[in-house]
Amino acid sequence: MGSSEPLKVTFSSPAKYWTDAVPIGNGRLGAMVWGGVAAETIQLNEDTLWTGAPGNYTDPDAPKALAQVRNLVHEAQFVQATQASAGLFGGPTQVYQPLGDIKLQFDGSHFNYGAYSRELDLDTATARVQYTVGGVEFRREHFASNPDQIIATSISASSPGSVSFTVSLDCALPDHRVHINNDHKNQIVLIGSCSGQQPGSTGIQFAAVLELEISAGNGVVSRLDDDGNGLRVEGADWAVLLLSASSSFQGPFTNPANSTRNPTSLALLAFQEVAKLSYSDLWSRHVDDYQSLFRRVLLQLWTGAAAEADDRAVAVRTTAERIRSFQEDQDPAFVELLFQFGRYLLISSSRPGTQVSNLQGIWNPDVKPAWDCAPHLNINLEMNYWPSLPCNLRECQEPLFDHIQALSISGSQTAKVNYEASGWVVHHVSDLWAKSSAYERDARWAIWPMGGAWLCTHLWEYYTYTMDKDFLQKTAYPLLKGCASFLVDWLIKGPQGYLETNPSTSPEHVFVAPDGKQASVSYSSTMDMAIIKEIFSALVSAAEVLNMTEDPLVQNVGEIQSKLSPTKTAKDGSIMEWALDFEDPEVQHRHLSHLFGLFPGHTITIEKNPDLCKAAEKTLYKRGENGPGWSTTWKIACWARLRNSEQAYKMVKHLIQPVDPDKTTIDFEGGLYSNLFTAHPPFQIDANFGFTAAVAEMLVQSTMLDLYILPALPREKWPNGSVKGLKVRGGLTVDVSWREGDLHEVGVWQENDGQEINLVKKMLHYRGRTTEATISSRTVYTFDVGFKLVEEI
Prior knowledge:
Helix content: 25-40%
Organism: Linum tenue
Number of strands: 30
Radius of gyration: 27 Å
Pfam family, one: Glyco_hyd_65N_2
GO molecular function: alpha-L-fucosidase activity
Distance between the termini: 24 Å
Oligomer: single chain
InterPro entries: 6-hairpin_glycosidase_sf (IPR008928), 6hp_glycosidase-like_sf (IPR012341), AFCA-like_C (IPR049053), Alpha-L-fucosidase (IPR016518), GH95_cat (IPR054363), GH95_N_dom (IPR027414)
Strand order of the largest sheet: 1-6-7-8-9-16-13-12-11
Structural class: alpha+beta
Largest sheet: 9 strands, antiparallel
Protein name: Glycosyl hydrolase family 95 N-terminal domain-containing protein
């Protein structure tokens, strides 16, 4: 018996706060639906609306500053090195901007409503609002279509002629105007621009077009009298609103002033494409497209008591109530919902051809959002894409690869000028314009040239999950080579004879220097070395697949690998965060940078180095449970890698706590908002994705040779369940079911893409039992708990 709860985020009242509204998106266009009755707001985003223009990410004075910092580090003058590193700082990022709002106003009778419900249906990616006024049932429906590139809203009523409202467009950006399209009286046009690089310079231009259609038999549409820039509907049976939007953005290296794109024409063009489609056609096309991704994975968790499950289905609870009660009931069906919500958000915020999912995905109401909504590369952007491969959404990762490609172009100039190095480099934060230089203000985050390298680990991971040799050869390998080339040049011989990074930081953290003062710059942080080892290993492995082992860079990297400083253990038995065993002034710091080798990396494993795993466990206990949402989900994944189900589940439980929506200041306590957005606070989307990936890691882990089944299953909390459609390394798909805490069946197969039959050997592991299986590309193999082959089809 599976979960009886539908995959819906539910509410019993309109949104009071932005984090009560529900997100819809098609990868490029996003909206937050508030569900107001007398007055409704649908807040809009388009993923290319950013301030600024392409920048110059080089500094010819940086090499001199670099030499000074390196000398100070060599002399163990870490405080002075931290101060001198200001000479390596770059500038700020540009800022992600909101598009505008659809405003709906209904007549005064709508203040007295009843039977209200609001939901986001994850299975159809559709938001719905229902209520009654005077015995008439009103229904609204919203979705964002990827195939037709529009946001659609339908408004209907149970009684003919009952739909009356006004609609208008608004925008928070100062440079905008709204008008009715003279060629189409039922279209409202919003035109505006984002601020440019300098005051008075041309920024990205944008346009949004809202088209209104009403029932043919009843209803009248007229222009509003007050400003003439809105429309009024009177006495219709139903109404449909379609919104299209576009911008002048023509790539990260084209100045908006030189763009040849006409946003208004492009926004209007979308309506030519959908003119012959009814609302039901649009919805069906949207659902077919969305479900082709979403329905690849099914997770069901239950305790096993049928009566209990039936009782749970009868008691309808809002999502906010389920969050508040989780510490007591620990409802496994809520874990299902939150897991699938992460997959929903990734499908909705990252599709082929869009921009990367930023710090808030694509949803942002603010002209000055927290941290600029910019992609942060020292955990956040990478975490956004952690679920894409194991959770069967490989297509959603394409924007990340496009972004890496752009970063490699700007980053090659930064490497050449700032560091006199070959290859390409990126630091801890980027933006629409592929910013590659260091950030500003503080060495804790600015002095970290490892952002591009961490991103490049995703390239090799993509190959290991998909076995796509064409991707490896044409996309991954050239980018890996450029990244590795920089790292080879960046490494210098250190005081202990190893090749070291200098300067080096552990992201956003500080240590106590020998003189008793706090500093952040030293050499060879543990994270630096772990990332470099991953990149060098990936390059060598990729070269072996592509028969390019004679490449001079590959041979050089092969020789260098043994000269990299090893991961070390501190006096207290934990993993050392820096090359020296400095005192840590904040042992419960939010970042787990020195555990990169455990997760998402592969240099610390139970099989290869159990002593380091014990040190990693000690490190996690030291870091504690508290932290922002992304830190919590990283801890879940780390505990899962250590196959410690108790601690992994403890962090699952820690995340699922309500957040006060009134609290808008930056804090580090995590939690969930009522719409399931994860909190730093404020809202950051990374933990939503991190949670989904971490739960998958609790259920299945893999290497190119091994498949670990239920490695961190909390058997008492999720005694019964199944997961279908998870991906594992080697190009395989896995279904797993378990009963009363023990494995029931596992199914393994290769996707058949019409190619020749391939055979993959895999060692299957479950609770000390191991067997070797040979998986053909045209056969599904099902094994029981003892790994006896029970079915082969």
